[in-house]
């Protein structure tokens, strides 16, 4: 095995890139769950966002429009989940699983004619002065804009939940929807907005895979990223800043196993490929999750 093939600076820089789609998807799901809704369809919304973003970017030549199209695609699919669970009061777990299957099938159908096509370039930002700092510059300040959008989104969500009145209402709905309704808050409206936000974020995470990380359309390219995002929300105890730790842990193990494969480590590739998922499971077993929102997964009946 050739250890010189592993560049520590490149490894850490790649970690931030690998964690970005997980950050985008999990921060959206965090808002959904803080509103008391359990949406297991993150994988389906991510893959739908991936194909929608790719189609828009290829046809317009603009990755930015591709990301916007991905957010809209993810939000539209989440609306289906919201309608079924909030208005027709279907089971949230079963509906989320069905949404994932639907998203995987829909994306495969939509992306049939786009296989093998390269996405338009989405250039990195070389932040002046900061990007030239030795070691830290290449690791932190020479990435594409979506890396920083993901980090900014985490900070905004943290501030929203902690300091804003709207965030307080969202948390109240998630903790006790009956009490929130008694105080005059529109529970279904709050939850629908949270569901749409979660869908848009999942779509952005999917588009990051198809427009930046690969960048091309491949059927099933999310490869379980949506399920990892769900697990990281639990690991983070529904706290935005702790969510970063989980995403970077998964991203770090993902990048490390790829580097170990390239360095010729004498371990079957299949074992290395499953190591990020095993690491996520191990962390969830070892770490004790905090208390979940009180109304998580419970349907709201306005007539009661």
From TrEMBL:
GO CC annotation = plasma membrane
Q: Which residues cross the membrane?
A: 6-25, 37-58, 64-84, 96-115, 135-161, 192-211, 217-236, 243-260
Q: Topology versus the membrane, per the UniProt entry?
A: Multi-pass membrane protein
What is the protein's major site of localization?
membrane
Q: What keywords tag this UniProt record?
A: Cell membrane, Membrane, Transmembrane, Transmembrane helix
Subcellular compartments? Cell membrane
| Species per Swiss-Prot/TrEMBL record | Yoonia maritima
Check the record and name the InterPro entries matching this protein: ABC_BtuC-like, ABC_transp_permease
What is the name attached to this protein's record? Nucleoside ABC transporter membrane protein
Q: Which GO terms describe its molecular function?
A: transmembrane transporter activity
* Cell cycle found in the keyword field: no
């Amino acid at each position: 095995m050739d250890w010189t093939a592993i560049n520590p600076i490149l490894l850490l820089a790649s970690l931030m890139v690998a964690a970005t789609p997980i950050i985008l998807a999990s921060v959206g799901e965090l808002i959904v769950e803080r509103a008391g809704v359990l949406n297991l369809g993150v994988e389906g919304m991510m893959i739908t966002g991936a194909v929608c973003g790719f189609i828009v970017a290829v046809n317009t030549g603009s990755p930015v429009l591709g990301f916007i199209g991905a957010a809209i695609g993810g939000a539209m699919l989440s609306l289906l989940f919201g309608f079924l669970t909030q208005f027709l009061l279907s089971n949230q777990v079963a509906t989320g699983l069905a949404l994932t299957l639907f998203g995987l099938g829909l994306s495969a159908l939509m992306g049939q004619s786009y296989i093998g096509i390269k996405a338009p370039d989405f250039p990195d930002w070389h932040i002046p002065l900061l990007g030239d700092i030795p070691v830290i510059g290449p690791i932190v300040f020479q990435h594409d804009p979506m890396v920083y959008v993901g980090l900014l989104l985490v900070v905004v969500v943290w501030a929203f939940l902690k300091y804003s009145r709207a965030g307080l209402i969202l948390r109240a709905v998630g903790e006790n929807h009956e009490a929130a309704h008694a105080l005059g808050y529109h529970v279904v409206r709050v939850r629908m907005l949270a569901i749409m936000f979660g869908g848009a974020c999942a779509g952005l995470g999917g588009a990051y895979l198809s427009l930046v990380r690969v960048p091309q359309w491949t059927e099933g390219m999310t490869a379980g990223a949506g399920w990892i995002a769900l697990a990281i929300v639990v690991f983070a105890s529904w706290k935005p800043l702790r969510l970063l730790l989980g995403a970077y842990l998964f991203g770090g193990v993902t990048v490390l196993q790829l580097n170990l494969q390239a360095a010729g480590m004498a371990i079957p590739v299949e074992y290395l490929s499953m190591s990020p998922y095993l690491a996520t499971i191990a962390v969830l077993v070892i770490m004790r999750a905090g208390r979940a929102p009180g109304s998580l997964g419970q349907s709201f009946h306005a007539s009661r």
